[in-house]
């Protein structure tokens, strides 16, 4: 009689095991935090009227909830965080930069037309003759500084620069001798804080009503305020801004600013789409176009010479220090790597001091107190930044060349020597081609890096010395990337984010084209060997 043992219970694999209660609770808690943040951000976007961003936020939040609440979709659970950060920090930045390139966004054109009209009205006010005095107390609320005013007829009012004056319930106001000194929901500033913020108080203009033409309250002593009215009157139907003091009429001509018949322009404008104007600007402005061509040529020369000279110097040192007959090789290798070990911007600042015309070590010690303008002469400045960048870059080339040389089999060298090849022929015909196959991609990436090498140029010369005859802030040692930075963020003729974005697109096209061609040539080199 045979007996059969009971079949062993099937063990459930970890992949098919249900998640524990603790994991489920942690997942729900994290999703609740994400949803809470999303709801908070959505409420802000809703009141700001940012409908496109609001829609993207809601769609993204819905997607996250579906992915992490669904029992399957395991790959998506791992990919979703990375895709979200990729969309925020890469895709959005690229798309937004492309959008800005087709606008006039910059100084004087950084908001809407309504904001521009309000700014022009606020910036050109004068006191109304014979206006009654309002007794005021400077207060602060959620909207910033404001004025708690007592009108000549005893009415209590409060408002800020963004919120016009509105009446208050007398029961919510604290009074002293018929003057409002405090109100519910507002913090009255003591005299010491008023003195510390007197510029803000003096510049504060509180509208009397929703219509800005009614005037504003302003105070200079934080005790009495008077009515001010703007000298500019806006006609929305005609799209004109009239200066009542001079009678000049400024018209909206569709270029994002108010302009008079004789060409005078009000400084405050608004953001509009300008199409290809930023891309065509170098062709329309011949001086800037010529300067841009000069900067582009220098950018290529700087990147090519830096990579070439650094590679030659690094390769020479790698060959020398790879020879087993060389003594103290480890010490020399450490010394060579030192420039590469320090941050480039710190090294550039050190060189800035060394090359100082009056007190620098180079002029004072090496050239006997000579007055050599290393960083202020157009030619010498280019030579200086090039030499400094080679000094910073050759240790990297030394490392990659040393590694590539050590990876070449010794049998090849020995076989060539046995066949009668001399040392130069062995290097030229065997070692160098094999070395280029492994280092060519790194040389291409080094070219792309030096094409946009902001630190060295900006820390040493800030792109200077400045080119003469060009209204824009363009220097002889400017690379395209430093020119973009100065156009966007340095006050000269005005910050122009639209033009800077257009130049950024130009840089991307150039680098992408050069890199694609170079990598294709590298592949051909690999196939050849």
Detailed description of the structure:
- This protein has 529 residues and is of the alpha+beta class.
- It is built from 17 helices and 15 strands.
- It has helices at 21-48, 51-69, 74-100, 113-123, 191-196, 198-203, 277-284, 286-321, 329-341, 344-354, 361-366, 378-407, 410-418, 423-451, 454-460, 480-489, 497-528, and strands at residues 125-127, 134-141, 144-150, 156-160, 166-167, 173-176, 179-183, 187-188, 206-207, 216-219, 224-230, 232-235, 240-243, 249-252, 258-259.
- Strands 1, 2, 3, 4, 5, 8, 9, 10 and 11 form a nine-stranded antiparallel beta sheet that branches.
- Strand 2 and strand 3 (144-150) form a beta hairpin.
- The longest helix has 36 residues, at 286-321.
- The N and C termini lie far apart (75 Å).
- Residues 13-17 have low confidence and may be disordered.
Overall, the morphology is: elongated
Mean pLDDT, rounded to whole units? 88
Instruction: Please indicate the percent range of residues in DSSP E strands (runs of 2 or more).
Output: 5-15%
Let me know the largest β-sheet. Answer: 9 strands, antiparallel
Radius of gyration: 34 Å
Low-confidence stretches: 13-17
Number of helices: 17
* Helical content class: 40-55%
The secondary-structure class comes to alpha+beta
DSSP strand tally: 15
Distance between the termini: 75 Å
Compose a concise summary of this entry.
The chain is 54% helix and 12% strand.
Features of the shown structure:
529 residues; alpha+beta; nine-stranded antiparallel beta sheet; four-stranded antiparallel beta sheet; 15 strands; 54% helix; elongated
